[in-house]
Design goal:
By secondary structure, the protein is mainly beta. Helices cover about 5% and strands about 50% of the residues. The protein has a single domain, classed as Lipocalin, CATH 2.40.128. It has an eight-stranded antiparallel beta barrel. A hairpin with a 5-residue loop joins strand 4 and strand 5. The chain is globular, with a radius of gyration of 13 Å.
């Protein structure tokens, strides 16, 4: 049986806020866009340059809901980042921890965590 959130997350999302992640967060600038197709994601900069891509696994039965991101490229290639998320029709928010760190439990960025907010593009 498919997770209903998997269907709901499909499409194009525009990043509107980011907190945590440090000053060198290359995915925090203006115009960042994420495209979700199936269980794959592609993150691009304004102008279309590919910044990141990979896969994810959702579990909406947990509280808070859980998502695991696995990057295919970049500094975390092959590593899984444990995260939590909130999703509705027009808004997607997640908090991800560094690879190997415990999964976040609250919707705020703590040490070694980043919180990103998106709206449907």
């Amino acid at each position: 049986m498919s997770d209903p959130d998997l269907d709901a997350i499909q499409g194009i999302w525009k990043q509107v806020a980011v907190s945590g992640g440090g000053d060198d967060d290359e995915f925090g600038g203006p115009g960042i866009q994420a495209i979700v197709s199936g269980n794959r994601f592609h993150v691009g900069a304004q102008g279309g340059a590919l910044l990141l891509e990979g896969s994810f696994k959702l579990d909406s039965s947990k509280q808070p809901k859980q998502i695991d991101w696995t990057d295919d490229i970049g500094t975390d290639a092959g590593k899984t980042l444990p995260a939590i998320y909130m999703l509705d029709a027009d808004r997607f928010v997640f908090v991800a921890a560094d690879p190997g760190a415990p999964r976040p439990t609250a919707f705020r960025a703590g040490p070694g965590q980043v919180m990103r907010s998106f709206v449907r593009a």
